[in-house]
Amino acid sequence: MPESAQPARELAPDPAPGLIERLYAPIRALVHEVAKFGIVGALAFVIDIGLFNLLLYGGGPLDDKPLSAKAVSVAVATTFAYFGNRYWTFRHRGRTNMGREYLLFFLFNGIAMLISLTCLWISHYLLGLDSPLADNISANVIGLILGTLFRFVAYRTWVVPAVPDDAADRELAERDASTPI
Question: Smallest Cα–Cα separation from 178: which of 97, 71, 61?
């Protein structure tokens, strides 16, 4: 009998979720946030790396100035990441005053940039590893990984906090979120 001609079998609902579902349920939202954060981060990474290499090795005014090139590329990528994370990754989380969010986002990205710049400085100037490959590994692999871990925790904790459970706190947060910058 062809598959389409077979009678439909109704599946009985599972009375109790399986072990995997019970373990996954409490972290489902976190997993989705991490995935979206990763996508936005990957796009920002492409912007950062592309611009860094264009500025540093493209024959422009920042040739042989790796720290300046990295600072500019991070600033551009950070602007992209703010909008991607605020309006996609964390859109379901609490809203606070946009000026506050923007300031904290850039503050934490500044700290993450310092993490990346420190890795680049150590590699380029302290260890003397000054090839394009060494610059990219130190700034765009090691520095990026350390900075990304810091940013995810900082964004979730301070920039876009969870929606308050208490009705009075929720009302205050909604009022703060609707206040113009």
Answer: 97
pTM of the model: 0.64
Residue type, 27: I
Total residues found in the chain within this entry: 181
Contact residues for 155 (Cβ-Cβ < 8 A; gap 6+): 37, 85, 90, 105, 108
- Residues 62 and 76: their CA atoms lie apart, in Å, by 15
Asked whether the predicted pLDDT for residue 173 surpasses 60, the reply is no
Q: What single DSSP character describes residue 90?
A: T
Place of tokens 């710049």: 117
- At 79, the amino acid letter reads T
Tell me, rounded to whole angstroms, the distance of Cα 26 from its chain centroid. 21
The pLDDT score that the predictor gives to residue 179 is 47
